[in-house]
Amino acid sequence: MSLVLVLNSGSSSIKFQLVDPTQHATDDPFASGLVEQIGEPKGKVTLKHAGEKHEVEAPIADHSAGLALAFELMNEHGCGPADADIVAVGHRVVHGGILFSAPQVITDEIVDMVRDLIPLAPLHNPANIDGIEVARAILPDVPHVAVFDTGFFHSMPPAAALYAIEAETAAANGVRRYGFHGTSHEYVSKKVAELLDLPAEAINQITLHLGNGASCAAIRGGQAIDTSMGMTPLAGLVMGTRSGDIDPGIIFHLYRSAGMSIDEIDQLLNKRSGVKGLSGVNDFRELRKMIDNEDQDAWLAYNIYIHQLRRYIGSYMIALGRVNAITFTAGVGENDVDVRADALAHLEGFGIKIDPERNALPNTGPREISTDDSAIKVFVVPTNEELAIARYAKELAE
Ligand code: AMP
């Protein structure tokens, strides 16, 4: 079996999967795992393979040590580079700026270009580069491919991509909307075209990626024309811990009047806001339990979340003019029956009718949840970014 190693490297962690690019989206990968707490006194590597979970704890000095330890654990359990036929490595790279619209076979030049983009993603791109360099050193004989989270949104027209701030300042500092979760929106939107049995070029759709991070996209004829995330993944929808859209004047106010530093405001808006900031929890399963127990903060958090989501859905219906499908994906979108029902409630006048029974079915795979007479079809499509990255990597490696 030809497998692709998919790596998602963060500042203190590496998520890894060994994926058969021909597998179904809902199948478990051949192997998967996580290297955690890199650079801290206690580190951990976990591995899932053949229905079993394995774990080692050891200090992990850096990404190189982390990946080496992961490979050791995989080899020990018969699913590492020693036994598995790894034909390519796919790397998730968060920021491709305006340089990259499509996945790239990684060369030294590409790494330099990703490095040039560090000012746009200071927390993410350095970790992605670490992962790339370490993996290229350990697996030098297979092609490595970079898949950019921003790539799918490269097609956005200037009216959607640019902010109304002084043009020279914006251009000089790379200030524009880039969008994120692109691999997921693209993967899901292609699946929707298959479900409708129509070419992607013939349909307009809205995709809602609702996970801990959340974003939505307006897609015309297979091309993204707008998205809710902006220059950074902080913009747009209310998320698990991120605020989504706020009046930028709030930042000046907190700085000047509340005496908060820029780093404190950054932490506040990224880590202590969104549903968690309002209710104390960011997991929608816990939020639901609190709502069932009549917790007022949880109820308010949920309503703010839904209100913002409906705002975006409405604006994308106008932006697209004609909409064939609206699709939910990611942890919340795939599993939370109430979020889906409330996001699209009372829109019969716009041709959107959810079937409550279909909506309540468990998350077993791509499915339609609208009624047969709903003019706009509503789907749930499980996303699988690793599989999408593996497929790109295999395709470009050939
Ligand atoms: P993701 O970022 O796509 O992995 O989504 C993670 C989030 O999905 C979690 O924080 C939960 O809020 C949500 N989630 C996962 N499973 C469920 C479920 N069964 N019901 C409701 N929400 C869920």
From TrEMBL:
The active site is at D149 (proton donor/acceptor). Mg(2+) binds at N8, E385. It is an enzyme of class 2 (transferase). Keywords: ATP-binding, Cytoplasm, Kinase, Magnesium, Metal-binding, Nucleotide-binding, Transferase. GO terms for molecular function: acetate kinase activity; ATP binding; magnesium ion binding. It is found in: Cytoplasm. The record marks H181, R242 as: Transition state stabilizer. ATP binds at K15, H209, L210, G211, N212, G213, D283, F284, R285, G331, V332, G333, E334, N335. Transmembrane segments: none annotated. Substrate binds at R92. Mg(2+). Can also accept Mn(2+). Signal peptide: none annotated. Pathway: Metabolic intermediate biosynthesis; acetyl-CoA biosynthesis; acetyl-CoA from acetate: step 1/2. PROSITE patterns: ACETATE_KINASE_1. Its cofactor is Mg(2+); Mn(2+). It catalyses: acetate + ATP = acetyl phosphate + ADP. Pfam families: Acetate_kinase. Homodimer. Belongs to the acetokinase family. Catalyzes the formation of acetyl phosphate from acetate and ATP. Can also catalyze the reverse reaction. This is Acetate kinase. It comes from Corynebacterium gerontici. The lineage of its organism: Bacteria, Bacillati, Actinomycetota, Actinomycetes, Mycobacteriales. The gene is ackA.
